[in-house]
């Protein structure tokens, strides 16, 4: 059985008023998967610059395996500023390294050894990385134990109906939040019905194994053909929510791939995500009480 789990897409720096923090859902996902004992990889690209050097150094410090190509574009940054009311505004720089992830022979070999992959819509805003992601997905072996997880992650205007439709068709697990579901429903013409009905439509239309709907403090759902699991969101003292959604996806995938039921995997994912919210940063070390559940 192929056992590598891949987080694929953007690797970048969030440039905040208080300083820089490493960002990007693929690294968060891969790091948390590795905490459950799986062989994980981050797939992305950085530039030949000191920002790229620092990303690779941090991955090395965290013992996070990666397949990061160095390309002739600057390492990605997101400028985060606060408006007069303290609400963050994001400027995601374009034409950067992770927009230009090449499909190499090494990446093809990795795809053939990959059991599960998590990808989003943001890294598909450029033709080069979109093509690489799609080739990777198409190269992966098909099988009952394989997972292709589309964590949709809509940002600004960096998505189109065509990109979303192609990703729905290639994935077998869709993760989406309630706000994103409203946006998708408008794009695809599912107005006037409640959120759960929209989920059932997407599940059936794209022949998904599972659809995960997160609703913030209002809980989360996992839909599978004929069944639905619901978990309330635990009330915790929140330090920050950065990376919490990625830790949810990682814990859920690790648990499912280890043979847990959907309900068991869902419960663990909710608890891991809640724990990450109580710690600063996207990559806190999980306690044994959570890690040993997989």
Which structural class fits the helix and strand makeup?
alpha/beta
* CATH superfamily (homologous) name: Ribokinase
Give the spatial strand order of the biggest sheet.
5-4-1-8-9-10-11-12-13
* Helix segment tally: 10
Top CATH class: Alpha Beta
Beta-strand proportion: 15-25%
- Mean pLDDT across all amino acids: 93
Write down the secondary-structure element order.
EEEHEHEEEHEHEHEHHEEEHHH
- In the CATH hierarchy, the third-tier topology is known as UDP-N-acetylmuramoyl-L-alanine:D-glutamate ligase
Helix content range? 25-40%
- The biggest beta sheet, please? 9 strands, mixed
Second rung of CATH, namely the architecture: 3-Layer(aba) Sandwich
Q: Report how far the terminal alpha carbons are from each other.
A: 18 Å
Tell how many strands the DSSP assignment holds.
13
Query: Any idea what the shape is?
Result: globular
Cα-based radius of gyration, to the nearest Å: 18 Å
Low-confidence stretches: none
Please tell me the total number of domains: 1
